[in-house]
Amino acid sequence: MAKKSYKRKLGLNQKIDHSIDFLQRACVGHMAQVNFSGGKDSCVLKDISIKAGINATFVFCNTTNEAPELIKFIREYHKDVKWVRPEKPLIKAIIDKNILPTRIARWCCRTHKKNPLIKAGYKIDIVGVRGEESNKRKLGRMIGIRGGKKTGRILLSPIFNWNTADIWEYIDKFKIPYCSLYDEPNFERIGCVVCPLRSWNVQKFWIKRYPKIFRAFEKAVCKHFAKKPEYFKSRGCPNGHILFYRWLRGEKLLGEPNPTSGMLI
Ligand code: SF4
Fold first, then answer.
1. Are residues 158 and 192 in the same domain?
2. N or C: less crowded end of the chain, CB within 10 Å?
3. Residue whose CA is closest, atom 1 of ligand 1?
4. What is the reported pLDDT for 49?
């Protein structure tokens, strides 16, 4: 623990050296996959991986729920990235599966993010996870196993000890291009456009920014509602539109067992 805190206190140059050294040692003799989302951390991760000179392929998973600016940015600045996709668009998956992803049961993170990347099939996965991002992530480490021991896949997080200020300092120092959305107020973090994990305060800005995409998801949730209207009505949700907004706000329905779980539907 003391060692981890020590690394978080290093200056940027030391962190860069440490991340590069870590990658070079961990990847020696292996082909690696650098998971690239197009966000600021990914841009730094990709640049660090190039500087480390490792044998890597950069892979972007288009969740089908991405901001148009992000897609444009990747097409323009990261032509060397290989694209993968989930089996079907998230909207269609919600309708077919007939279950909404929630803060606890976030199945789309697996089907629409992790699985397509795992299918790309390299032994070493390199990701831009940082300990600072959440309490759960703080408990992580720079090296781990991807998807259980049976997979034999190694997960590396070379920028695990970097903080947000380090990321921006690096971008500034090396003139790394980044997605224009970051320059807009309230878009400190970029991810899926319609996502039930976001706080309502932040969600409001995304709804305002991407009304068409939210409307398309609203239609999907209305179809979901139409498959079992009596069930939702008996839980205090009279129609699909209200279900949609309650889903986005992470509100539970009447009679649900776990008050912290969001909507288990
Ligand atoms: S970030 Fe949100 S919308 Fe995107 S895959 Fe994960 S839970 Fe689903």
1. no
2. N
3. 192
4. 98
